[in-house]
Amino acid sequence: MHTSYGTGPAQVTPEAYYLGLADPEWKEHFVAQSIAATLEAWHTRRAAEVGYGEAEVQGVGSSRRVLLSDGTWADPRRVQPPQAEVVSRTQIDPLVRVLLVRDSSSQVILAAVVNYGSHPWIFNASAVSAEMPGVAYTTLGARWSAPEAAPPVILCPSGPAGDVTAIWNIDIENVWTTRPGESPADSLARREQAFDHELQRLGGRLVAGVEAAVAGIERWDAQPAIRTGRREFALPLKPGYHRPPEVIVAGWQLAAPDGQHLTEAQLLQVGDSAILAVPGELFVSLGRQLQSLSPYRHLLIATIANDYGPFSYLAEAADYKLGGYELILTPAAPEAGEELVRQSALLFNAA
What we know:
Blueprint (H helix, E strand, L loop, with lengths): L13 H6 L4 H20 L4 E9 L5 E2 L2 E3 L17 E4 L5 E9 L5 E7 L15 H14 L8 E3 L8 E2 L6 H4 L8 H32 L4 E2 L4 E11 L23 E11 L2 E5 L3 E2 L1 H10 L4 E5 L10 E2 L2 H4 L4 H5 L6 H15 L1
Helix pairs in contact: 3-5, 6-9
């Protein structure tokens, strides 16, 4: 499918950025476009083969939960407390995982799923922005396009990244910091230029990882088994939490028992690989649990799938003891992360 479907401008308020609100008409329009694109893809399908590759991405993702000895959290955008030492730092998953689809005859790349676990932005106040996935899509799409053919479809779902950003790899001095005596106009112009530079630099590192993953594909499957699965389940919420009416949920989710939120996970198996779509922003440790339980040779984990506003971050119970704004902000109870892993394992077994 090569028709371009634009989403149009989303009417998103600052509150919507966290609660998941958007213009309902725009949401319906987006869903209708997705259905139309899927149908067109089905009617224009052709013989293809799939391959899986992975490679390490250098210097993009970094831990956002760096706990200091004075009880504060380290952040390169702020002045660090004197003599405070790092006592805890969460690990990242450095791998980019790529599921590639190419034409069986010409070997022209038709589509790719690029799965990497890091918040994708340079300056997180940019709200709705393509940022690093946009650089990957533009660069790879141009390199992979065949003459007189439309660029391939490239999807970039975020892997487990609730505690991972690029923040420690960004040129903070030029992107974030204002300078004494600098006018607001000069500061903005300088920082915009630095933003563009950083976006290309870090996005280029992601692209390099993707290309290394593709170059390492050793096996192509021309007749992959295709299976799908879906599982509804409830996740526990913190005591006393009640979903604000501004947070939009589906009709079937309104039947959730008190103290719980009804959600879902989906699974798409393609040959010996699978894509697991789960709600919320998972910490990397939960992603590692899912990888260890997966019966598939390769697993891509797509987070923030279908559901985010009712609970946002999901982590292991032990992470709650360290605090941090993610686990203060989230309505999810400490046991919700492990419950998500358990339910996903049941979905693995049922698929």
